[in-house]
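Form 7-S
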Amino acid sequence: MIKQLLLPFLFLAFSPIVQALSFQTPLEIHTQNHVHSFQVSIARTPQERYQGLRGYRGLMPYQGMLFLWPRKTRPNMEMLGVLFPLDILFLDDQGRILEVALNLQPLSSENFRPHQPISQVLELWGGTCAQLGIHVGNYVKWRP
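Output:
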């Protein structure tokens, strides 16, 4: 009985994190032959970057999360707490895709870190890059 009473409160405790994600920023990925349009949520603060997509149940098609840093860095990206597979794209200041980590498995303890400093990371549903032909050298464009 107590468990049944606590479950709604636990859900409410974590739901603001999930509900706070707003996929309203337009973003385009320019491949060799096509422009793919997405709607993304942006993580700018350390807290937003740490939270990322943790606890979120998934993404709709053509949604993602864009992580921004004020200066170039080599962030550790991890799948702990992420409940669905991801493709992670590491971007330079101009939005060029420098590295990709494809179809990362949910809840994995493995860390992914770019080989060179970057300023942006884009996370998409796992398998999106393969499906749409997105790879290193393509460009990501968005407006703040």
